[in-house]
Design brief:
By secondary structure, this protein is of the alpha+beta class. 28% of the residues lie in helices and 41% in strands. The protein has a domain of 81 residues: Nucleic acid-binding proteins (OB fold (Dihydrolipoamide Acetyltransferase, E2P)).
């Protein structure tokens, strides 16, 4: 009976640890997101890579993020990272518009816990 309880506790701890890893540390390849946006739309995911460009317009701020598999534009309300910085971003995939075979995707960064 004791062995069964310890096994059950170990299984629960591993399951919670696995969930926490995939929810907070595991990055999704940008190329996967860009090639299959429907699989990721409406789901909070994490992407990571190198900042290649950054832009600040009057009404919005965004930067381009590249990993070994592709590039995506990240729209944010937070301060912009430096070009060349390695960053991890949690957020949502959004399709801004499609015109023929051209599709513009953006990654909307989630608000920070402080509500900024």
């Amino acid at each position: 009976m004791k062995g069964l309880g310890a096994t059950l506790v170990a299984a629960v701890v591993l399951a919670i640890g696995g969930w926490y890893y995939f929810a907070h540390f595991h990055s999704t390849a940008i190329g996967k997101v860009v090639s299959n946006p429907r699989d990721y739309t409406g789901k909070e995911i994490v992407v990571s890579g190198t900042v290649t460009d950054r832009f600040s317009l009057i009404i919005m701020k965004y930067f381009n993020l590249r990993d070994s598999s592709g590039m995506i534009t990240v729209v944010t309300d937070r301060p912009l990272p430096a070009v060349g910085a390695e960053v991890r971003v949690k957020g949502y995939v959004k399709e801004e518009f499609s015109l023929g075979d051209r599709q513009v995707l953006v990654f909307q960064e989630s608000a920070s816990p402080s509500g900024r």
